[in-house]
Amino acid sequence: MSTTVDEIADGIYRLSTWVPDIAPPAGFTFNQFLIAADEPLLFHTGPRAMFPLVSEAVGTILPIEQLRWITFGHVESDECGSMNQWLAAAPRAEVAHGMTGCMVSLNDLADRPPRPLADGEILDLGDKRVRHLDTPHVPHAWEARVLYEETTGTLLCGDLFTHLGNGPALTTDDIVEPAMQAEAMFRSTSLAPDTADVMRRLGDLAPNTLALMHGSSFSGDGAKALNNLAAAYETQYLTRS
Ligand SMILES: [Fe+2]
Ligand SMILES: [Fe+2]
Fold first, then answer.
1. For residue 124, how many other CB atoms are within 10 A of its CB?
2. What is the mean pLDDT of the chain?
């Protein structure tokens, strides 16, 4: 395996590792995003076993000890498995997460105390600004959250729009249909009465780039993509027959 590095928005880098053994023959990508700001931020750490690959990839952009923030959507190994390896490698880095994630898991799991964020709180990274948004159970997990980078209009949307394959770093093609195919295979999304409403609320941000943890990132009308995703979930999973 190897990790590729692509800049998908100004100063936002996608680090992608394709694992062919998951859902062959298409395979499955694990992506992390580095915001190379004055205070650099990593969104998704990758699993523990990928730390050598991902840290080497980050090191091609900036010295990893400069990392200031370690962040992720929810508590799973691909989101935060190597969190403590990153904390050890970057002495001034802090884990930042929502109140629920800190209270339920990270106060215990993280080797240094995490920084809890209120819903809507902004982390000022200097030349970039990220807004923390709580999205409980969307796509899954009580502590689920996403990040919105305001200066580039990039929504770091984690497992939303998850799809198979090793496509381009950034696509303008439809990502809703591939996401619904992957959902039919994995059934990974929690289904709650407000699932579609949360997706639409993210669409209200009108992002122009969607940074996906699994699959190609998307450039284009992010509001339309999120609204179409909400409609697809309503049609296929959320409407009582
Ligand atoms: Fe997940
Ligand atoms: Fe994931």
1. 11
2. 98
Q: Which ligand is nearest to the CA of 44?
A: 2
**Which bound ligand lies closest to the C-alpha atom of 74?**
1
Q: Say how far apart CA 40 and CA 229 lie, in whole Å.
A: 31
Number of folded domains that form the chain: 1
**CATH code assigned at 142:** 3.60.15.10
Q: What percent of the chain has pLDDT over 70?
A: 100
pLDDT tens, residue by residue, 187-236: 999 999 999 999 999 999 999 999 999 999 999 999 999 999 999 999 99
Q: What spacing in Å lies between the alpha carbon of 188 and ligand 1's midpoint?
A: 8
Helix (H) or strand (E) holding 43: strand 41-43
Domain span at residue 197?
A: 3-238
What pLDDT shows up at residue 241? 61
- How far apart are the CA of 74 and the centre of ligand 2, in A? 9
Phi-psi region of 126 (alpha: psi -120 to 50; beta: other; left: phi over 0): left
Q: Which ligand is nearest to the CA of 140?
A: 1
CA of 110 to the centre of ligand 1 (A): 18
